[in-house]
């Protein structure tokens, strides 16, 4: 495929299935199905929604476009706001906790030979 045009509102949204997650939704905007070597995903978290702690082999960059959240990375917690971004290397545990308002962010990942996600018992405060 040489190119692909769509509207975010037309891309199916599904619930995030990572253990410890709640009120978190994902849309896969650009994927290998389009011929890309990376994926672009949009996440939406409702107020107090969360994505549980997990780890995976692939790298990701998260760009906050609406709201604010706590991002747990390794053993640290950082607060990110609209306009902030974070790069998380493969093999680094992380999770997201939304604050009081609607949260939206884009997440760009690379495709690795192992795309599995390991769920962790750790909690993101």
Automatic annotation (TrEMBL):
<dbReference type="InterPro" id="IPR014710">
    <property type="entry name" value="RmlC-like_jellyroll"/>
</dbReference>
<dbReference type="Pfam" id="PF07883">
    <property type="entry name" value="Cupin_2"/>
</dbReference>
<keyword id="KW-0479">Metal-binding</keyword>
<dbReference type="InterPro" id="IPR051610">
    <property type="entry name" value="GPI/OXD"/>
</dbReference>
<protein>
    <submittedName>
        <fullName>Cupin domain-containing protein</fullName>
    </submittedName>
</protein>
<dbReference type="GO" id="GO:0046872">
    <property type="term" value="F:metal ion binding"/>
</dbReference>
<dbReference type="InterPro" id="IPR013096">
    <property type="entry name" value="Cupin_2"/>
</dbReference>
<dbReference type="InterPro" id="IPR011051">
    <property type="entry name" value="RmlC_Cupin_sf"/>
</dbReference>
<feature type="domain" description="Cupin type-2">
    <location>
        <begin position="43"/>
        <end position="108"/>
    </location>
</feature>
